[in-house]
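Q: May I have one protein plus its fold?
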Amino acid sequence: MYQLNLPKKVYFKTGSYTVALRELSEVYHAKRAFVVSDHHLYAEGIITPVIRWLEKQGLRTAEFFTVDDVPAFAALRAALPAVTAFHPDVIVGVGGGAAMSAAKALWALYEDPELDLAAAVKDPTLVHTGGKTLLALVATSFGSGAQNSPFAVLRDDAGTLVQLKSQCLLPVISSTDAFFTVSMTARQVHAAGAASLAQAMRALAAEDCCEYTGSLLDQAVAGILQNLTAAEAGCPAAREKVHDAVGMAGAAYGNVTLPADVATRLSPMSAQELVGNARVTHLARKLGYADAAALVQACEAIYRT
């Protein structure tokens, strides 16, 4: 038996973040929002529209903008007192995978300040959320699809990359809005699309990939392959398609058992393993490739550049 776990509400398309965040006040009657992001996005002013919109809806805001490329356990524990003192109705993660991972982990810690993150990595049943506050995620780049997945990629106290995974980390609201991708450079677009493509291929070949997750991943792979070049060149329509594709991939990730953790940038699977997979073969035919090997080669040409 399969089960498809997704955020309660998934908003997508350009301009959707305003509708998504409006629900926080109109539906959930939130009054206080704790915004989690990174200093680069703050310095570039990318976070400003989100904060202004929240305030326009009548929410008081507090911010945490010192997220590292990979959030560390120590930094998260250090940030927890600020969250606790603010008593938020909602935690809003804004940014890429790092910011959204930090928001998820802070949510788990705020709900249970005694939570041992290292123990929760080994035993996800220790994670419990939703008793004190909500989580909303706004993706500003398309590298991880983390706005729709139950993963938080963190760095433990020994400096090792670890993956906290629990369905309790799925947000109540996610937004995949290409409005935020306008400032991404061609290099950033390529790197983000390539990383997601590799992850989507890995997920497609997972043993427990089913009809629902397979369909999402088919759309994700096709969207990236067909639009990444134009997205790198700055085409708004192409960037929206890639952003949506990565969001679909992220929605699928949380419902399959990946061969390796989501922090891995490139596929650890050999080309032969992918070529021999029935779902990869089916997708290759659907996309007009001669065979699975041709599809795999097209993917490798992107994520090895």
